[in-house]
Design brief:
heterodimer; A: alpha+beta; Aldehyde Oxidoreductase, domain 4; 3 domains; seven-stranded mixed beta sheet; five-stranded mixed beta sheet; 19 helices; globular; B: alpha+beta; Ubiquitin-like (UB roll); DNA polymerase, domain 1; 2 domains; 5 helices
Amino acid sequence: MARLIRTEKEVEGKYTEQWVVVEGEDEALDQWPQGPRAVVGTPARRQDGLQRARGEAEYTADLQLPGTLHAAVLRSPYAHARAKVDLTRARATGWVRGAIGPGDCHVLQEEPSFHGAPVAAVAADSLREARAGLELIDIEWEELEPLLDPEEAVKRESFVDDTRHYSRGDVEAAFAEADVVVEGEFRTQVVLHNALETHQAVCRWEGETLEVYISTQFIWGVRDSISSQLGLPPDRVRVVCNYMGGGFGAKNSPGDHTYIAIALASQTGHPVHCALTRREENLAAGNRNATSQRLRAGARSDGTLVALEGEYVNAIGWAGFNGPTYGPIEMLYACENVRTVTYGAKLNLPPNAAFRAPGFVEGTFGLECLLDELAGRLELDPLELRRRNYADKDLVDDRPFSSKNLLECYDRAEPHWARRDEVRARSEGPWQRGVGLASQIWYGGGGPPSYAWVRVGSDTRATVITAMQDIGTGTRTAMAQIAAEELGLPLERVRCELGDSARGPYASISAGSSTTPSMGPAVRAAAADAARQLLEIAAQRFHLEERVLSLRGGQIVSADGGSWPLEEITGLLEDAQILGKGARGPNPAGMRVLTFGIQVAEVAVDVETGEVVVERIAAIHDVGRVINPLGARSQVEGGIIQGIGHTLSEARLVDPVSGKVLTQTLDAYKLPTIADVPEIVTDLLDIPDEHLTNLGSKGLGEPPIVPTAAAIVNAIRDATGAEVHELPVSREAMLRALAEAREREKRGAPAAV
Amino acid sequence: MLELKINGGTYEVDPPVGQTLAETLRGDLGLTGTKVACGEGHCGACTVQLDGVPALSCITLVHTVGEREVTTIEGLRDHPLVDAFVRADALQCGFCTPGQIVSAAALVEAEPELTAERVRHAMAGNLCRCGAYPRIEEAILSWRD
């Protein structure tokens, strides 16, 4: 029976209440016992690996629909300006097929407010002609004064979103009674997603239906945004994404380029492809915003945290969201007295976008570095300090955790942590070595609504059908594994078809580490529904009661010991099909569903040149049941490698006077290469969350990047005594921190206030 | 008119002056396995081989290719490296993967006895934002298994 329920939904820490319809067997199914099973929990190759590796997978970038025109976008060269746009000359040519300016499309701006803001666009038969067409657009620019300094923005109360205030307990009194107080100011830089497939879409009208082929993390969100922007019934918008070349949070919404393609498709009657160039990608496709963090921690001499305080400024840019940089300080430790304030500075800079655990990566850096400085002051082992402040319930909402195995993570970190004497002893010459650690907390519980269908045919093969997207995380494979496990089929007999809003039910966003925990339970429920129907048919065929039958290892097994190959039943089907339906049920009421972990980093620092080399990272995470250990390990490694880039080499640079972005190309913006990768040891607890869905699985996309920067910087401190408070740790920053450390030593001053 | 030798076949194309090899392969010949991710020769996604030597097709003008044999991922679909990449899970989103495999195929051809150090040096021009690097290294070192 279909049930309409009101439930709480969380995506990346944002909670909303909404109605969901639940039908199917999610809650009726018991979780599988802990541990690897025939298919689930067993390493599986990616189902679409060969297509991707052989260059056969068709990404949005590869689509060549007949009659497609190519769009080029004229973007503001100024951080703030007024633009008087004249399209007359462009429209007068025969070869500019479409031209639009402010007034023709809501994303084109008369007063562009950041470098790279879209102002006008043209479409032509080739990209080359489209770019030439841009030269024929006449614009009178009036340059305006840009606001670029976040502190100044806070002073002027120029904000994106409301300033967020939080407090619990009596922070002032607690600081007054603390035996030790440490404080510090931390800064993180702007980093750019740089998915290798740039943001792009191909849009075409098919009769009254708008087809949108798009590189996206959220097929249904794109459909809903476009339908409401254009005033179309949602089912008149079809969104397709079979393969996409990375997103990391920047592809959750349609984006300006899609609306530009739609406007030009409407004007010309042709399909229009609008793809950002790499330079445009690094201007106007979103970023992880910079932060500044003024932090204070008070503790008793035994290490018990009595007060924590954080003042955060998110330097957001012209638009975006005031992310949860405050999250870790409020959530990670059992501290009764916590106060935060978080400003979201609105600036004449490109808008931010979610980037793999937005806010928590930045907030964990500040908090976990400060905690190590506290451990230093108290002469306490940093791991022991974290154990002593272990939170056994959520103090923000006073809720129990649905599951938390962070202490087990700490235990498993011991052998890695115990290497530090040996690591330090390998210091030689200018190369100083050390070990650091940092804890991780993040969301990742997913939620409803999410739906899946499972189809079984007379060939005894099953197909999972759901209109979700595989952004490179191996979703197709994980979903097929879950269905195969439930149906008792070998994995090679199960496929997952996804990527098309017209050809499958509503599916979750692939963001917020929510894909597997949102979709997986729906897929299992759909497979169970199909299995139930197979048993009903078998009961009729063999004149047995349905309740004595079960599906196991490709066999229909009877309680009295009889067994028949599943083919005997499916063989009866001929052209008939079994169709199972499944829905994701709600999250456990009154509980907080979170992921946890710890990373231990080993580094070598050349104290003469400031070069930092990460030599080893051990990552221990608690994300519930693991579906595919092979793909899971890859995600952990990928998160850590992005974290290493964030820590050491990546930084978007902006001219401080004009507000122009200087790092638009991949020679200037330094992504990690294969030569920058340390030894990475992955250890996933694989303990199902007994309160969460029929799977007990949480998400894994984001947890691995959360503690990496703090673990590396704590290792730098262990190696050299230098306290680095800003990212990236460039050689210049490293040498400055080393000089400060020498000064402190000379003065004989303690490491912190 | 230009005659291009690609993956063992011969193709006639008539590109405008200034067109890149990548544009010709993808746009004119539909060989979309070659990806363009930066368009400026910084990322390696567009890597093809010219007479067995890795080349960045997004900054190679098609008129400069001449007699050289062009090998794209479409010409390497049955190379053991393809299976090695899938086996090792050496890809996530897969957008850089064809370029990785084309580079790696030239590397294993030139240097059958590889070390991890050598792979890390030779493959440093192929960026992977998903960070599949440890598995790419594993795939290349185990490509013959």
